[in-house]
């Protein structure tokens, strides 16, 4: 029996459906939700930090980093984001090339298109070390 290193095994469902949905189709209509990333009064935050979505709805998150530091938005379950955050502590220069994440330099913008196929409460966080702990987290409620 062959043993593969853990890093060589693909994340199941990496580009497909996950607990909180699947990558959206940019060619289809989507509700636009603007999210600002910033630092203010000694903390870091997303505005808004709570978004309500209908099950089956496709959303285009229009992201804008108004801060002075790099920030990212990573969609996931709370458990996934906490686990990923631990990996980021060990590898702070880790960069994402995932449909559920976008990292932005100061004063830059970007977007994530996502289709929320399952009801529940999900997380979005900045997983750059120290940022989530400084307040950069939010909740997505899918009804």
From TrEMBL:
<keyword id="KW-0479">Metal-binding</keyword>
<dbReference type="InterPro" id="IPR008972">
    <property type="entry name" value="Cupredoxin"/>
</dbReference>
<feature type="compositionally biased region" description="Basic and acidic residues">
    <location>
        <begin position="85"/>
        <end position="101"/>
    </location>
</feature>
<keyword id="KW-0186">Copper</keyword>
<dbReference type="GO" id="GO:0009055">
    <property type="term" value="F:electron transfer activity"/>
</dbReference>
<dbReference type="Pfam" id="PF00127">
    <property type="entry name" value="Copper-bind"/>
</dbReference>
<dbReference type="GO" id="GO:0005507">
    <property type="term" value="F:copper ion binding"/>
</dbReference>
<feature type="domain" description="Blue (type 1) copper">
    <location>
        <begin position="34"/>
        <end position="143"/>
    </location>
</feature>
<feature type="region of interest" description="Disordered">
    <location>
        <begin position="85"/>
        <end position="104"/>
    </location>
</feature>
<protein>
    <submittedName>
        <fullName>Copper resistance protein</fullName>
    </submittedName>
</protein>
<feature type="region of interest" description="Disordered">
    <location>
        <begin position="1"/>
        <end position="27"/>
    </location>
</feature>
<dbReference type="InterPro" id="IPR050845">
    <property type="entry name" value="Cu-binding_ET"/>
</dbReference>
<dbReference type="InterPro" id="IPR033138">
    <property type="entry name" value="Cu_oxidase_CS"/>
</dbReference>
<dbReference type="InterPro" id="IPR000923">
    <property type="entry name" value="BlueCu_1"/>
</dbReference>
